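HUMAN:
Sorry, I am quite new to this. Are you able to go through these amino acid letters and fold codes? The numbers rather puzzle me.
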Amino acid sequence: MTPRRFLRHPSVLRYVDSQLSDCHNPTLTDVHISLANRDHIRSYIAQAQNLSFPFGTGWKGAYLVNH
């Protein structure tokens, strides 16, 4: 997942729309200004990936999960 894909993901857009229904065409930056920084979003994505896949998603990760 990249910050660009995250920002355009339908689930994210739906969440933002539900939280800011009074705003016309809301974006994630309308939720919080820090989310305008893609490096900030990238760090959140990396944190979520490390929690979900502590050994990575490659062959090494698949091997270590099964052993």
